[in-house]
Amino acid sequence: MLSPINISMESLNLMTLAPMLIPVVGALLILVIDIVKGGLHKSLYVVLSLLFLVMDFVAIANASGIFMTNGTTLGVFDVMLIDGLAILAQFVIVGASMLFIPLAMTHKRFHEFSYPEFFALFLFMIAGFQFMVATDNLILVFVGLETSSLALYTLIAMHNRDKSFEAAVKYFTMGALAAGFFSFGAMIFYALTGSVEINKIALVLAANGYADIGFVLVGVAFFLAAFGFKLSLIPFHTWAPDVYEGASASMAGYMSIVPKIAAFVVAMRFFEFLVHSGIVWLDVVLYIVVVVTMTASNMWALVQTDVKRMLAYSSISHAGFVMAAILIGTTQANSALFLYWILFSFTNLGSFSMLWMSRQKHLPDHQSSDHSYDKFAGMIKTAPVAALIMGLFMLSLAGVPPFALFWGKLYMISSAVTGGYTILALIMALNSAIAGYYYLKLIVYMFMKEPVVANGGEVYVTNATLALKTIIGIAAMGTIFAFVAINPLLEFITAFVYNSGY
Questions:
Q1: DSSP-H helix ranges across 9-114
Q2: Please, are residues 483 and 402 in contact by the beta-carbon 8 Å criterion?
Q3: Are 390 and 445 in contact (CB under 8 A)?
Q4: Predicted confidence (pLDDT) per residue in 456-489, tens digit
Q5: What is the pLDDT of residue 113?
Q6: Residue 391, in any domain of the structure
Q7: Could you say which DSSP state residue 75 is in?
Q8: Secondary structure class of 419 (helix, strand, coil)
Q9: Which secondary-structure segment (H or E) carries 248?
Q10: Low-confidence ranges of the chain (pLDDT < 70)
């Protein structure tokens, strides 16, 4: 007769679950409140969501203190992994979410924000992203991936426009395909090593001398395709421009930041040991994917007539730029990834919030899309403050000093040179120069063209609430004054990355 297994509560280390459980509890509370007393004003749900996000942020800060004292911490039968990557990624996820959620306090016609389910799904999605980054167990990564993805599909569809339904279906289809690829890749590595934990997979493959290299490469191909879909890397990017266009501008901005940092962290955990294992095939494929993603998306962005689609292709290019850090695989490059994405979060969320502010319900006859370049023509005369702020965000995205993203690009290119990827660094610099053209194109429209007049009035209109102005102001301040915090921020990031062994 088998003796029972005694497991102490201390050994489970349930505190590792605290940051993920807080948004789950918040989501359930919102649903319960709606069942008990329906029809409450959305401001209650915005405040509740922000409250639980603040609690989540505090829990992550507490976990960071434990990590810096005790090192990497495991919990819940060793499936939870609290290390520097998990903490940094959760800071970005929750911080960007705290900037996004006040955008719900906007004009009443954006009706998706009036549903309590929107806020509940949003919190479930955040919990899913946190589970993805706080583990090296492929099963739990998959659970987090599907939790966040299913919530995000619904949030896109709730915008309730024809293109929104189309975008949600496209994203669901591509997401299902990515999930399938991830499952097949995990299955192959489990068959090869008998484990679904990335660290153990790395140890077993190294101990065997990568004897089954053919199967390893097949598994890597499946994972690369899965990450390619989630990060919108070429050639798996086709869904991104249409989904960004169909989603609300604020949700598109959020999608360009938070889901990708979660995918980057999982990709970093998985590809790190393979990059250092000397598999030349993987280096070549990653190199090609990075270069083609940066370059081709820039070419497509050059010919766009809609600012929102231009920013969508721009986001694909930035994802390719940051993917270079995983190829380089040094501590400096991994630190550069987080620095770049934190600075990108301010700038890109601010850019899409500016589009959200000018959302039109009915398009003028001459305007082909809601965010065509013509809409921004002469904006310096019709909305000078908005024009200056939008110009600021474009200059930052272009990498013009001293604005935020210049420092991210500089440090990323520096890490490529230090890591021995000089040609890649030159390609990255060249792509930054190319991207400057389409960012400056919008600035030319705003500052050097005459306003387009339709039906007796200017096309550009603003629907700025106090909450929206506040978020855009925070993004603008972060973009302008980022240079003040670069050194302390970089030291903070590097300490967590280095102590995690990456």
A1: 9-12, 18-36, 42-70, 84-100
A2: yes
A3: no
A4: 444 455 556 777 778 888 888 888 888 888 888 8
A5: 62
A6: yes
A7: E
A8: coil
A9: none
A10: 1-13, 104-114, 159-162, 358-370, 452-464
In a domain, 265, yes or no: yes
Question: What are the respective helix, strand and coil percentages of the chain, to the nearest 5?
Answer: 75, 5, 20
Give a yes or no: residue 5 inside a domain. Answer: no
Phi, psi at residue 339, to the nearest 5°?
A: -60, -50
CA dist., res. 97 & res. 119, Å (int): 11
**Running DSSP on this structure, what letter comes out for residue 197?**
B
Element (H, E) at 81: strand 80-82
Q: Domain count of the chain?
A: 1
CA distances from 191 to 185, 209, 249, 265 (A): 10, 16, 43, 24
State residue 453's pLDDT score: 62
In a domain, 35, yes or no: yes
Q: Which residues contact 469 (CB under 8 A, 6 or more apart)?
A: none
From CA 215, how far away is CA 111, in angstroms rounded? 49
Q: Which two tokens stand for residue 101?
A: 């959620």
Q: Kindly give, in sequence order, each residue whose CB lies less than 8 Å from that of residue 420, ignoring residues fewer than 6 positions away.
A: none
Angle between helices 280-302 and 258-275 (to 10 degrees): 150
Q: Are 95 and 345 within 8 A, CB to CB? A: yes
Tell me the three state secondary structure of residue 6: coil
Residues with Cβ within 8 Å of residue 403, at least 6 apart in sequence: 347, 392, 395, 396, 479, 480, 482
DSSP characters for 422-475? HHHHHHHHHHHHHHHHHHHHHHHHHHHSPPPEETTEES------HHHHHHHHHH
In this structure, how many other beta carbons lie within 10 angstroms of the beta carbon of residue 231? 25
- Parent domain of 314: 12-499
Q: Which DSSP string do the residues of 270-292 spell out, in sequence order?
A: HHHHHHTTT-HHHHHHHHHHHHH
Strand partners, 137: 197
Residue 450: count of CB within 10 angstroms of its CB: 8
